[in-house]
Design brief:
Layout lengths: L1 E4 L4 E3 L5 E6 L2 E4 L7 E11 L5 E2 L10 H6 L5 H4 L15 H8 L3 E7 L3 E7 L3 H7 L4 E8 L2 H11 L9 H4 L9 H9 L16 E3 L12 E2 L7 E10 L2 E4 L3 E4 L6 E9 L4 E2 L1
Parallel strand pairs: 11-14
Antiparallel strand pairs: 1-15, 2-3, 3-4, 5-6, 5-12, 5-15, 7-8, 7-9, 9-10, 12-13, 13-14, 15-16
């Protein structure tokens, strides 16, 4: 049994996505737990990135009150990249941090998870981002030198396609395949003229498969705030969701910072660790 702060699972792209849960200094290969009983028990406390412990996050934000209003990691431009100003030398909350985060290459991409969506990600996070969102197909549309430019392209393209994943639809099964190369070609004409120079010629489509034994038929999202102990058979993993028996799903990422115990049924010994 391991007690630690929950964090989103690490992923590795193989024929089927490999999932690893880092907890209590150990890396648990989650794919091996499919078909076994798992248990997550919340202590009743959460911990902010600043190390402050509390009973709940401020406004369910993943931050304490102070960090929510003061940390650059909780600023508006994190959620709305079109508001970034570091490329102009204008501070939002912490200019040095914002320069490091914003003045780095970003990708604009198209992904098929619950249908076509446009999104952005830092240059080093491309495939990881797609796996976290449960995308089955993805293609890079543009590579830009900073976060603001990626936001400017996204704002335009989301007039024509979604910019969010319908998580219920994503967890219902595999989406219909689409011609992402054709979709990229069609949407590229809407990219602002001054940013068209960043459109990528590479039309490689990444295909992604997930370790799912059985998809839920009528999805029931379970949360630790409502039920402090969540247990059952692990039926699969997609995105950052654990798919459990009885049509339940548990979003690991939305529970980052929850101090919890994690255990699983080891078939050979027949007991929880």
């Amino acid at each position: 049994m391991f007690r630690d702060t929950l964090k989103k699972m690490d992923t590795k792209l193989e024929d089927v996505v490999q999932y690893f849960l880092e907890i209590h200094g150990k890396s648990i290969f989650m794919n091996d737990l499919i078909g076994k009983q798992i248990k997550i028990e919340w202590s009743g406390e959460v911990i902010c990135a600043c190390k402050k412990k509390m009973g709940s996050f401020y406004r369910n934000s993943g931050f304490c009150y102070k960090c929510y209003w003061e940390s650059p990691q909780a600023s508006q431009s994190i959620f709305k990249p079109e508001l970034c100003t570091a490329h102009l030398g204008i501070e939002e909350r912490d200019l040095e941090w914002e320069k490091t985060f914003q003045l780095a290459p970003h990708y604009v991409y198209l992904a098929n998870s619950s249908g076509i969506k446009v999104g952005i990600t830092r240059g080093s996070q491309g495939v990881i981002r797609w796996m976290d969102q449960g995308a089955s197909q993805a293609i890079l549309l543009a590579e830009v030198p900073n976060r603001r430019f990626s936001g400017d392209i996204e704002v335009v393209l989301k007039r024509y396609v979604n910019d969010v994943t319908n998580w219920r639809k994503m967890l219902s099964g595999n989406p219909n395949r689409v011609d992402l190369v054709k979709m990229k070609e069609d949407l590229s004409v809407y990219v602002p003229d001054e940013l068209k120079q960043y459109i990528l010629l590479d039309n490689t489509v990444t295909e992604i498969a997930y370790p799912v034994k059985q998809y839920p038929k009528k999805i029931n999202s379970v949360k630790l705030e409502r039920t402090s102990i969540i247990e059952g058979e692990l039926m699969g993993i997609k995105g950052q969701y654990l798919i459990l028996d009885k049509d339940r799903v548990f979003n690991i990422r939305s529970h980052e910072g929850f101090i919890s115990k994690f255990s699983f049924q080891e078939v050979a010994q027949g007991r929880l660790f």
